[in-house]
Amino acid sequence: MVGRWSSRKILHYFPSLTAEQESLLEEAWNLAYHLHAGQKRKSGQPYFIHPLAVAEILSQKFFDPVLTAAALLHDTVEDCKNCLIGDIYQKFGPEVGFLVDAVTKHRESFYCRGQEFTDDTE
After folding, report:
1. Of 78, 101, 116, 119, which is the active-site residue?
2. How many CB atoms lie within 10 A of CB 13?
3. % pLDDT > 90, the chain
4. Is 79 a catalytic residue?
5. Marked catalytic residue, from 79, 95, 116, 120
Protein backbone atom coordinates (compact mmCIF):
# COMPACT_ATOMS: atom_id res chain seq x y z
CA MET A 1 0.00 0.00 0.00
CA VAL A 2 2.88 2.39 0.70
CA GLY A 3 4.01 2.35 -2.95
CA ARG A 4 0.55 3.38 -4.05
CA TRP A 5 0.81 6.51 -1.92
CA SER A 6 4.28 7.58 -2.98
CA SER A 7 5.03 11.11 -4.19
CA ARG A 8 6.74 9.42 -7.16
CA LYS A 9 3.23 9.01 -8.57
CA ILE A 10 3.29 12.76 -9.30
CA LEU A 11 7.01 13.43 -9.67
CA HIS A 12 7.37 11.15 -12.69
CA TYR A 13 5.30 13.65 -14.73
CA PHE A 14 8.14 16.16 -14.30
CA PRO A 15 11.40 14.72 -15.62
CA SER A 16 13.45 17.89 -15.20
CA LEU A 17 12.46 19.51 -11.91
CA THR A 18 14.76 21.79 -10.00
CA ALA A 19 15.52 20.75 -6.42
CA GLU A 20 13.23 23.56 -5.23
CA GLN A 21 10.33 22.37 -7.41
CA GLU A 22 10.77 18.77 -6.30
CA SER A 23 10.82 19.89 -2.67
CA LEU A 24 7.63 21.93 -3.22
CA LEU A 25 5.81 18.90 -4.64
CA GLU A 26 7.09 16.55 -1.94
CA GLU A 27 6.07 18.96 0.83
CA ALA A 28 2.62 19.50 -0.69
CA TRP A 29 2.18 15.74 -1.09
CA ASN A 30 3.26 15.03 2.50
CA LEU A 31 1.06 17.72 4.04
CA ALA A 32 -2.03 16.77 2.03
CA TYR A 33 -1.50 13.06 2.65
CA HIS A 34 -1.13 13.53 6.40
CA LEU A 35 -3.94 16.07 6.77
CA HIS A 36 -6.39 13.83 4.88
CA ALA A 37 -5.27 10.68 6.75
CA GLY A 38 -8.30 8.86 8.10
CA GLN A 39 -10.76 10.77 5.92
CA LYS A 40 -12.91 8.66 3.63
CA ARG A 41 -14.91 9.30 0.47
CA LYS A 42 -18.56 8.26 0.35
CA SER A 43 -17.34 5.11 -1.42
CA GLY A 44 -15.23 4.23 1.62
CA GLN A 45 -11.95 4.81 -0.24
CA PRO A 46 -9.30 7.07 1.30
CA TYR A 47 -10.11 10.72 0.62
CA PHE A 48 -6.57 11.38 -0.62
CA ILE A 49 -7.39 9.72 -3.95
CA HIS A 50 -9.35 12.86 -4.88
CA PRO A 51 -6.59 15.50 -4.54
CA LEU A 52 -4.17 12.99 -6.03
CA ALA A 53 -6.38 12.50 -9.09
CA VAL A 54 -6.78 16.26 -9.54
CA ALA A 55 -3.02 16.74 -9.25
CA GLU A 56 -2.33 13.99 -11.78
CA ILE A 57 -4.75 15.44 -14.33
CA LEU A 58 -3.33 18.95 -13.99
CA SER A 59 0.29 17.81 -14.04
CA GLN A 60 -0.30 15.82 -17.24
CA LYS A 61 -2.07 18.71 -18.91
CA PHE A 62 -0.02 21.73 -17.79
CA PHE A 63 3.33 20.38 -16.50
CA ASP A 64 3.29 23.08 -13.81
CA PRO A 65 4.69 22.09 -10.39
CA VAL A 66 3.09 25.09 -8.64
CA LEU A 67 -0.36 24.23 -10.00
CA THR A 68 0.18 20.58 -9.11
CA ALA A 69 1.18 21.46 -5.53
CA ALA A 70 -1.96 23.58 -5.21
CA ALA A 71 -4.04 20.69 -6.58
CA LEU A 72 -2.68 18.38 -3.91
CA LEU A 73 -3.56 20.95 -1.24
CA HIS A 74 -6.83 22.23 -2.67
CA ASP A 75 -9.13 20.65 -0.05
CA THR A 76 -6.90 20.92 3.01
CA VAL A 77 -8.21 24.26 4.28
CA GLU A 78 -11.90 23.43 4.00
CA ASP A 79 -11.68 19.78 5.07
CA CYS A 80 -8.93 19.70 7.71
CA LYS A 81 -9.35 21.38 11.10
CA ASN A 82 -5.63 21.97 11.62
CA CYS A 83 -4.99 23.77 8.34
CA LEU A 84 -5.53 27.49 7.84
CA ILE A 85 -5.09 29.34 4.56
CA GLY A 86 -2.43 31.52 6.18
CA ASP A 87 -0.44 28.35 6.86
CA ILE A 88 -0.55 27.44 3.17
CA TYR A 89 0.65 30.91 2.13
CA GLN A 90 3.43 30.80 4.71
CA LYS A 91 4.65 27.28 3.95
CA PHE A 92 4.18 27.22 0.15
CA GLY A 93 4.39 30.86 -0.91
CA PRO A 94 2.03 33.32 -2.58
CA GLU A 95 1.39 31.40 -5.81
CA VAL A 96 0.32 28.13 -4.22
CA GLY A 97 -1.45 30.04 -1.45
CA PHE A 98 -3.43 32.10 -3.94
CA LEU A 99 -4.48 29.05 -5.96
CA VAL A 100 -5.61 27.12 -2.88
CA ASP A 101 -7.35 30.21 -1.52
CA ALA A 102 -9.18 30.77 -4.79
CA VAL A 103 -10.78 27.31 -4.74
CA THR A 104 -11.53 27.08 -1.02
CA LYS A 105 -15.29 26.97 -0.40
CA HIS A 106 -17.41 28.17 2.49
CA ARG A 107 -15.57 31.41 3.06
CA GLU A 108 -16.84 34.94 3.01
CA SER A 109 -13.38 36.41 2.73
CA PHE A 110 -10.20 36.03 0.72
CA TYR A 111 -6.78 35.99 2.38
CA CYS A 112 -3.91 37.32 0.32
CA ARG A 113 -0.46 38.49 1.37
CA GLY A 114 -1.38 38.80 5.01
CA GLN A 115 -4.55 40.77 4.38
CA GLU A 116 -8.08 39.47 4.54
CA PHE A 117 -10.55 40.82 2.00
CA THR A 118 -14.25 40.38 2.66
CA ASP A 119 -16.91 39.94 0.02
CA ASP A 120 -18.96 43.12 0.27
CA THR A 121 -20.97 42.47 -2.88
CA GLU A 122 -24.05 41.17 -1.05
Report:
1. 78
2. 18
3. 69
4. yes
5. 79
Write out pLDDT tens, residues 64-86: 999 999 999 999 999 998 899 99
Torsions phi, psi of 109, nearest 5? -145, 165
pTM: 0.83
pLDDT at residue 122 above 50?
no
pLDDT digits (tens, 9 = 90+) for 34-46: 999 999 999 999 9
- Residue 111 phi/psi, 5-degree rounding, is -100, 125
Residue 46 bridge partners (DSSP): 40
Q: Can you give the three-state secondary structure of 107-118, one letter per residue?
A: CCEEEECCEEEE
Helix 19-35 × helix 85-103 angle, to 10°: 90
